[in-house]
Amino acid sequence: MPFASAAHAEARFRLSLAWVTPIVEPRPHDRLVQTSFIVTLADKGKVTEAVTRTTGRRRQSVSMQEREADLGDELGGRSGAQWRVLNESTLVRVAARPSHTFAIWLRTDGSRSCTVSLEWRLKPGFTVFEGRSRRGREPRFFTQPRVEAATCEVL
Questions:
Q1: CA of 143: how far to CAs of 43, 68, 85, 97, 130, in Å?
Q2: pLDDT per position as a tens digit, 4-37
Q3: Which residue stretches of 2-155 are H helix?
Q4: What residue numbers bound the domain in which 92 lies?
Q5: Residues 54, 73: Cα–Cα separation, whole Å
Q6: Which residues pair with 139 in a beta bridge?
Q7: How many CB atoms are located within 10 Å of the residue 134 CB?
Q8: Which one of 99, 133, 135, 143 has the fewest beta carbons within 10 angstroms of its own beta carbon?
């Protein structure tokens, strides 16, 4: 089902993503992030995402969240992300951060196959990406993340 028809039927996708974030400050190291999204487009333009995130190679931390919003509205929580329909075959999730945007591009033929890609883009005036640690909320600075895996499955 193309996204333009999302108001008339439900569509579900599983996104399995992994990337390495090269932390440069406060302590240089690579941080592996593995994330799984179940994205559901429901009647009347609602989108739900169920997210499971695993971070760290040695000491793994797992978090799970489920959020729902109208397409184009902010999902809430720490992500500040929103899903938008770009055209009948492309959906994008954009999370705006102070130093950059992080986008997940979901493309599909509708019912049989889909692809997913990731994009981090620095905002003007920034030379490194800035994030926060999950526990202490202290700032972390990193360079361009490297995608390890990005797969999509129509459910």
A1: 39, 31, 29, 15, 9
A2: 544 456 889 999 999 999 999 989 999 899 999 9
A3: none
A4: 3-154
A5: 26
A6: 132
A7: 13
A8: 135
